[in-house]
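Reposting from the mailing list since nobody answered there.

I have sequence plus structure tokens for a pair of proteins and want to know whether others read the tokens the same way I do. The first protein:
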Amino acid sequence: MHAYIDETRKRPVRVAETIVIKAARQRFGKSSFTKAELLRFALSDPRSVNSYVTPDLGLARKMFKEIVKAARPLIHSKNRQELTIEFVNGSLIRFHSEKQGESLRGYTTTGVLIVDEGSSFKDTTFYEYIAPWVTVHKALTIIISTPKFKVGFFYESYKEGCNQTNPYYRTFDWVRNYPVPIAPEDLAKKDKMPAMKWQSEYEGEFIDAQGTVFDLSGCFSQEDTSQPYFEIYLGLDFGTGSGKDRTVLTGINEFGQQVFIWTTNDLSPGEQIEQICEIVDTFTYDDTGNKGQRVVRSKIKSFYVEQNSIGKIYSDAIIRRGYTIHPFVTTNSSKRKLVENMQVAFQRKEVKLKVDPIQLAELSFYESKTNPVTNLVTYNAPPGMHDDHVIALMLAYKGYQENVSDENKYEIIL
């Protein structure tokens, strides 16, 4: 690869060539390669302007500091605010973040442009603001990234190099061409991550941009869930009343068994509150106090309630009646964490579900979609379906995961 890079620099007629590098998370030395190439171009080509751009400003600052440390005797000046380094030979390296938005317009690169973690960039940011940097001086662009979805400019650029449809694109697959064993400490994370995320980050493969989300094989209870239990973790998703969506209350016991599902789509708001409070009051068991007297204890260890839309009005009504709940505001980010935790729970067979046809349909058809422009992943029910059972179950599992004993607990990698 270094030989190919050198070859592009020696051609008598320069064109704006692009090298696309696909590498898995860690173990391949992406950062070391990036640092070395930036320094090589800057030091071997006097008065060149070289650029490094990444999705995250913190990563840009980290690269800036590492290059300053590595090349201190050769540096003429540096600016920590503007993230620029000028070398004694007149060359310059600039460090940028995608978050600079439109302020990225108007820059020029004469040496090398390195786009780090390209799979995380918005297409508009790259094509409109960054790609034009190399057009005037026909500078080399190196796009390096861990792969994500089969959409976006990084995936399209990678395919272009693989298919040789564009003579000015060249692809390097470090995962296949330079295999490096996965470290034991990373292998230990495999069953703690969603399978698709492992495939992307550690196996270095592109994954489908959309599709069904949950693998439910082996996740239905074959045990007698009527056995005594003394803990329950509740999740509640309120219906809006539109399109016949449902209010769903569900519960998971301390053994990971889904032991309760209640749903309605034909009660008034007041009637729903009354019914829910009555149900919550039934989750008790008799115990013996310090003096041998009968004590009634609650089985409820957590009660997560979705707060979006009318959810806050309903949950406030429950709170006013003296019940303790954990409000949950659903955003794309918070829902993603719920979904990924639930994916791992199903992979590990951590939860055993009741056989409920509506819940089964919602879980089976729940889908992910990736916006090809922003690379933003969303999780939703497909058109014409609802996700009330899915949300309620994920909220119940959130409480279960936070409270199960240490020997059963595990950490989700996010």
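The second protein, same order (residues first, tokens after):
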Amino acid sequence: MSEFLLIFISAILVNNFVLKYFLGICPFIGVSDEVTASLNMGMAVTFVMTLTAPFVWLINTYILARFNLPFLEYVTDIIVIASLVQLVEMFIKKYSRGLYNTLGIYLPLITTNCAILFSALFLVLRNYNFIQSIIFGFGSGIGFTLAIVIMAGIREELEYADVPKPFKGAAITLLVAGLMALAFMGFAGMPSA
């Protein structure tokens, strides 16, 4: 049980895809204008990451590895991700038109979100079993959500701050992202001498 908790916490804080590997930056910067939209985007990414993990594990274990087809891994991962994003997009469009309009182009761009593809590839590289893959996928999505919501909260506050003119807009956003990445590095601990 502690192994599962370690994978989960590590995916959220220590190996956060946005703040450690700088993956998924497009929606991280593009949708993080307001907390509500960021939270919804994070939930959509979490949903896709969580469902991608078991599908990718099953395909890799029972089809690609069994028939010695590792060269198809990227293609199958992208097909799984695109299919799941399509389902999420149709669901949001049908049940929450306002959210669909708020997320705009960033919703279909989840398909090409490199954080999701990286999580699919990462679980295979780490030889996670089925349960570990699901926990890793869910933890990675929660980590993405945490990062994008924190960024949105900071950006909402920056609207009322006295930011020097050269730092307004993208400059302050990138500075905040860098400071957040430094803060999250603290979860990895100090290297031993």
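Reply #1 (J.P.):
I read it the same way you do. Residues 7-185 form one domain.
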